[in-house]
Amino acid sequence: MATVSFWGGIGVIGSSKILIEQDGWRVLLDFGLDFTPGRGLFRGPVSPRPGHALKDRLRTGGAPWLPHLYRPEAVQGLDLPGGSDGRTALFITHAHLDHIGLTGWVDPAVPLYCSPDTQRLMEALAQSGQDVEGGHPRFQVIPDGGTIAFGPFRVTRYPVDHDVIGASGYAVETDDGILAFTGDIRLHGRHPELSLAFADAVHGARALVIEGTTLSQGFQHITIPESEVDRRFASALAQTPGLVMMTLYPRNIERVTAFLALAQNQGRRILWPEPTARFLRALGLQPIDSLADTGLDEIVAHPEGYVVQMALDELPLLLDLPTGPGSVFLHANGEPLGPFDPAWEVLQDWLKWTHTPFWPIGTGGHASPDDLHRLVEWVAPEIVFPLHSQEPDRLIPPPGTVRWLPERGGRRYPLSGRSRRGTP
Ligand SMILES: [Zn+2]
To answer: Which CATH number applies to 226-360?
Structure first.
């Protein structure tokens, strides 16, 4: 009998970890860090202790207490067996820390799978000094539509659209039918056809685990098309006589590529903080210029020729840049990620102090509530588990689909039971 249990993503956005078990074999989908800005024991100046980081996370519920998953030395002294049992494999949906951030602790003998683009991003991050905590994970790649047979399971990876390249959904075939997982998904991005093809491919699944980021009423999430983001960026460049500053999430490589071209068209160069420049160069993007290479004097002399990507820890740089009326600060989903992040107010205070206009131009990586419901209708699963949401009960299942609100941790939900309506 196959079961599924949930070790994160319950009542929170992020930290997804879905465990599917059958005949003593285990498939784990995603292995992310908690993402709770302003909340949790490890926030602000407090980080897990170096040398004890995994133990600190395990003891405070930030990493799942699962045997035969972690490197033995990382769990030494805990009542938790480390090392691989040869019957566990991990599959990662995409390169956001709330889905991949714990993979540095995984025993190297546990196979770790992802898309080719996710592996490429993680290698570039490692090369630029931004590897995940714990160690450098070695990923094996599955091509689009490729299937891995593991014990009694067959796991197929499908590309989906999200605000990072290489985002994937999975279908896990068990003796009790297919469990499909969307990962993070949207229909308003550059490749809605990928998300729709995934929904088609897993139509009629026994169970669908779907993210529900935008379901919370208090969650301000803009879902304009990416093409509209490009248009707003181009229009800000055209309308601003002075310096353009921005915060763009660098892992959104497709948007970085689009912005590089748009800036070049209007005679501006984008200047990146040094670690971001190293990351983008490692991916082979060009032209990638850094603030350090260009120099402040040049920017002050020719503000109309530049776009400066600002890092949160470099905000005092605003005191030296030509800010004020005539300049603009664009928020394109970089850090701080939104008003829920305490750093949002800090940024606003700096912009007020320097009299810099602020213009949010971004769009979210997550499907709107309407699109989430559309996806569930297309898949028409027997059971839907809304996950990765502050208010998962706002997902209303269509007729014929049962909604189960998952509990965190040890509860195993059987996938056997009701008669199946046929398998995809
Ligand atoms: Zn994501």
So the answer is: 3.40.50.10710
